[in-house]
Amino acid sequence: MNTEQKIMQLVGAKETVIAGETRTWWTKIGVAFENKDGSFTLRFDYVPTNLADTTIQMRERKPKQADQSE
Predict the structure, then answer these.
(1) In the chain, which end has fewer C-beta atoms inside a 10 angstrom radius, N or C?
(2) Res 23 pLDDT > 60
(3) DSSP assignment of 28-70, as one string?
(4) Which residue from 61, 62, 37, 46 is spatially nearest to 12, judged by alpha carbons?
(5) Least confident of 7-11, 18-22, 48-52
């Protein structure tokens, strides 16, 4: 039995047109914790103001990379 809790990151994507070019801006907005029944609890650090134009995704957390200058 795996007792390790899965933690995901929540990110928001907002598309903006700058000088005729569409750019997508990704921002970390919170975390999600897996519950015992497989569902997730979402904890937002903040919520984007224009939700109609923002995509929110739940993604695997990437481990911090060690300094590779060694």
Answers:
(1) N
(2) yes
(3) EEEEEEE-TTS-EEEEES---S-GGGEEEEEEEPPPPPPPTT-
(4) 46
(5) 48-52
Segments forming the whole domain that contains residue 48: 7-60
30 in Cβ contact with 44 (< 8 Å): yes
Question: Number of folded domains in the chain?
Answer: 1
CA 32 to chain centre: 9
State the Cα–Cα distance between residues 14 and 52, nearest whole angstrom. Answer: 10
- What's the CA gap between 26 and 9, in Å, rounded? 12
Q: With respect to residue 17, please indicate whether it lies within any of the assigned structural domains.
A: yes
Are 9 and 61 contacting, i.e. CB atoms less than 8 angstroms apart? yes
